[in-house]
Amino acid sequence: MSGTLIRTASPVAVRAVPRSAWRPRLGILTRYASPFLLVLFWQAACSVGLLSTRLVASPAQIVATGWALTRDGTLPTNLAVSLARAGFGLGIAFVAGVSLALVSGLSRLGEDIVDAPLQILRTLPALALVPLFILWFGIGETPKIALVALGSSFPIYLNLHKGIRSIDPKLLEMARTLGLSRARTIRDVILPGALPDLLVGLRFAVGISWLMLVVAEQVNADSGIGHMMMDAEDFLRTDIILVGLVIYGLLGLASDQIVRFLENTLLSWRPSHRIGRST
Amino acid sequence: MNTVVQVTQEVPAPARDDAAVVVHGLTRRFGDGPAVLDRLDLAIAPGEFVALLGHSGSGKSTLLRTLAGLDPVTEGSVVRPREVSVVFQESRLLPWKRVWQNTVLGQDGADRRDRAVAVLEEVGLGHRVDAWPLTLSGGEAQRAALARALVREPAFLMLDEPFAALDALTRLKMQRLVSDLWIRHRCAVLLVTHDVDEALLLADRAVVLERGRIRTDVPIPMDRPRRHADPRFEHLRGILLESLGVHDG
């Protein structure tokens, strides 16, 4: 047994160099081949009647429905509503998260006042507040935006706070020997040093904002992608539900790309961001 | 021009009134442990280059941190110029600012960039003015740190083992650069180092610290540039190694 191992080992080692040259391209092909084949199987199963279209619509049907919903204006209208909710919620979360992190990151007193209650609150699942929010804010836009804002504030706060607290003390010492004022130290040393962590927080926050929105729009809403999907459920329109899912997926993907773009632009000083953009 | 950093105890005026830096009776201890600095007296004349040698834990770093204003003076007194600069073992450049912005960090004025470029050219870094610090080599980063120290035109420059992390060849180049810069700027210099040869190549005076006190304080009366082959070099090397407790030379 061990003899065969030794014999096969050497030719593989010799071939390793030319192999690594064409492997990346093949890697991309195999990466996309698998999902593509799955969609193909799905379509085939629906076409020959293996999968009931009442349970799940075929890919072709989803594309057709998506196009129809776009043409009659249903999809654009609901998408705009959802985007506005996520955008407002995220905007509030960003302002609140950054302000709180600055207060608790830059002063000990601020940390004592702000950090402890936030650490307790963050252990609560934000979605559990839905009933309370409906009681407080009714069923209009406010509870949905508030839910998005609440859920996505935490990752922004936590990451920026960590970033501010973990600035290299040697750089702060250097700033002292250069005679930098407190305000200048914050502007030139602390904030840029914490920016990578803030962007990590932002990426999490964007992901959470979509999650919050899905729930908020399915519990009570008369517009939005979630509402469109709930409506479709009543009429057994699996194709519309799946269009909604695809839209959510695309939104998540697009927002992640935006944050990546922000990272590449704002953190261009990091060598890793120039070499490996795909990481 | 000189400012008293802090005096907590009434002390007699030091003998050398013309000195740039005067340390008198400086004592520092952490907790209940033994004194890291023990009633230390040290004076550095304007434009004088002093090398500070000693084992780890002899109090070198504590003395430098006190002179740099990073540690408080609790016992004794320290008088030093207002304009001081420190170069640490690590360059401590801000990775998110370009080299020239790092150089003039905290400086004001519309001619900031011009001043940065001038001093970067002086340290041989004129071609990396717009580079990001993380793309610099170790030697280049230390050159940038030197430029950042010099742009402030310090009357007193502290160098805390600035070449310890560099390879041998780069270190030689950097020692020559520091020597040239000092001849041109003529500020008082305190160089903390482990390297006896470095002290002998660069300094006017070598001070050996042991358990918070000065054990040896010898002038180095050799012309520059200095050569290892000089018999006085060998002689002084023997003295310094002896007081550092190394007897094999």
UniProtKB/TrEMBL annotation, chain B:
Keywords in UniProt for this one? ATP-binding, Cell membrane, Membrane, Nucleotide-binding, Translocase, Transport
- Classification via SMART domains: AAA
Q: Where is the signal peptide?
A: none
PROSITE patterns referenced in this protein's UniProt entry, alphabetically: ABC_TRANSPORTER_1, ABC_TRANSPORTER_2
InterPro entries for this protein: AAA+_ATPase (IPR003593), ABC_transporter-like_ATP-bd (IPR003439), ABC_transporter-like_CS (IPR017871), ABC_transporter_ATP-bind (IPR050166), P-loop_NTPase (IPR027417)
Q: Which residues form the ABC transporter domain?
A: 21-236
Tell me the domain of life: Bacteria
Q: Pfam families in the record, alphabetically?
A: ABC_tran
Per the record's keyword annotation, is Cytoplasm included, yes or no? no
GO molecular-function terms, A-Z: ATP binding; ATP hydrolysis activity
| Family, per entry | Belongs to the ABC transporter superfamily.
Read off the PANTHER family from this record. ALIPHATIC SULFONATES IMPORT ATP-BINDING PROTEIN SSUB, TAURINE IMPORT ATP-BINDING PROTEIN-RELATED
Protein name in UniProt: ABC transporter ATP-binding protein
| Gene source species | Gluconacetobacter tumulisoli
Ranked from the top, the taxonomy reads: Bacteria, Pseudomonadati, Pseudomonadota, Alphaproteobacteria, Acetobacterales
